[in-house]
Specification:
Protein name: Membrane protein
Pfam families: DUF6198
Shape: globular
Transmembrane segments: 16-34, 54-76, 82-102, 114-136, 169-190
Keywords: Membrane, Transmembrane, Transmembrane helix
Number of domains: 1
Largest sheet: none
Strand content: under 5%
């Protein structure tokens, strides 16, 4: 029995490059939003809160939480793809590297553009790594896996995101206008970017990829 879904046979190098580029850009964009200090996506709020409360870097917590969420796939009988495992390993490393290399601005005139660029790049990154067709991220897969058991995907996704956000905020994570802007913007951004990156087979039809989970604002 395979523990990981095999990589599709067609255009493997292209898929691998698209996946890696998407994951690196995702980690980079998350770091930009964190450095802006105006609030970030719910999961990043949780990782920041865990870092402030218990030590370790935000990137390390990103990896640890991703691994724990992936374990939750087991009772759901979900099988990760290469992209799922890459998501767990790459995002945290790219995030910590960004936080180390990009200084945190002190003026609002720099923080606001940094936040907006981070959100935009995150939408592009999401479209890229999902478009590679190598498996959903562990957090997205958890939502779709629960929904496949008869639950509403909208309700499942919203419940998880709100719970993660509340926990992160209670632990000291930064919730702000960036959190709201991300929630409002990421759905439309991925809706635009995913078709541009989704790989197609020789007939011109989209290759099989993991469907983008619905976001609370969809």
């Amino acid at each position: 029995m395979l523990l990981i879904d095999p990589m599709p046979l067609d255009r493997r190098p292209t898929r691998a490059v698209l996946l890696l580029a998407g994951l690196l850009l995702y980690g980079f964009s998350s770091g930009l939003m964190l450095q802006a200090g105006l609030g970030q996506m719910p999961w990043a709020v949780l990782h920041q809160g865990l870092s402030r409360s218990f030590g370790l870097s935000i990137g390390t917590w990103t990896i640890l939480v991703g691994a724990l969420v992936l374990l939750a796939w087991v009772p759901l009988r979900l099988r990760p793809g290469v992209g799922t495992v890459g998501n767990v390993l790459v995002l945290g490393v790219a995030l910590d590297a960004t936080l180390a290399l990009v200084p945190a601005p002190t003026t609002l005139s720099v923080r606001v553009p940094l936040l907006l660029v981070g959100i935009l790049l995150n939408g592009i990154a999401t479209g890229a790594y999902i478009g590679a067709g190598l498996g959903a991220g562990p957090r997205d897969g958890l939502s779709t896996g629960l929904a496949a058991r008869g639950m509403s995907l909208r309700v499942v996704r919203t419940t998880i995101e709100v719970g993660v956000l509340a926990t992160g905020w209670a632990l000291g994570g930064n919730v702000g206008v960036g959190t709201v802007l991300y929630a409002l913007g990421i759905g439309p951004l991925v809706h635009r970017t995913l078709p541009a990156f989704r790989l197609r087979d020789g007939s011109g039809t989209p290759a099989a990829v993991t469907r983008v989970p619905a976001l609370p604002n969809d």
